[in-house]
Amino acid sequence: MTDGTGAGSGARVRPRLTVLSGPSGVGKSSVLAELRRMGPDVHFSVSVTTRKPRPGEVDGVHYHFVDRAEFDKMVDNGELLEHAEFAGNCYGTPRAPVLAALASGLPSLLEIELQGARQVRAAMPEAQLVMLAPPSWEDLVGRLTGRGTEDPAVVARRLEIAREELAAEPEFDQVVVNDDVKSAATRLLHLVVGPAPDAR
């Protein structure tokens, strides 16, 4: 019998990489923060980026901050599992820490956008792709427009991208609906540490 977190099971399951993705405004940061508070024995991948740190962000904790030349070198050397460019800034996932975690028996969790998730699926077909989805489209629209601080054109573009991302749901192995942060984090944890199915 297992408690759903991997504890209490005599069988050893091979750890796997789980990729969490979802549209802007769906609450990925909140769900991941709640998951971290649960203190699971999970490797949280830290992305590398060329953008400048925001107030409160710590290098090596929130991101690895590098300049464009170093980022390009990492791409050329095959050091990134995936990489993409958004709004003039580059983002990528260092390959070595993920592989090291998996080799040591730790499941690894990575939060990236749809483009990166597709690259990971191509590079590591055994990776589990999880989409974090809103309870409804209306709920997501409310989250993205409720701030009222951004240019309407920017919000409209975000909604357009969000619609495209949600349309990619069939590409994902699992969908977690974020109708409650704690319950969404709990379900995600079970997916990250649970045994992989024998066959898709």
Automatic annotation (TrEMBL):
Listed under GO cellular component are: cytosol
Keywords, in A-Z order: ATP-binding, Cytoplasm, Kinase, Nucleotide-binding, Transferase
Instruction: Name the EC number(s).
Output: 2.7.4.8
A Gene Ontology molecular function term for this protein is:
GMP kinase activity
* Localization, UniProt: Cytoplasm
Domain named Guanylate kinase-like is located at: 15-193
CDD domains for the chain: GMPK
Q: What is its main location?
A: cytoplasm
Reactions catalysed, as given in the entry? GMP + ATP = GDP + ADP
Note down the stretches annotated as region Disordered: 1-26
Q: Does the keyword Transferase apply?
A: yes
Protein family (similarity comment)? Belongs to the guanylate kinase family.
Name the record gives this protein:
Guanylate kinase
Q: Which organism is it from?
A: Saccharothrix variisporea
What taxonomic classification does the UniProt entry list for its organism? Bacteria, Bacillati, Actinomycetota, Actinomycetes, Pseudonocardiales
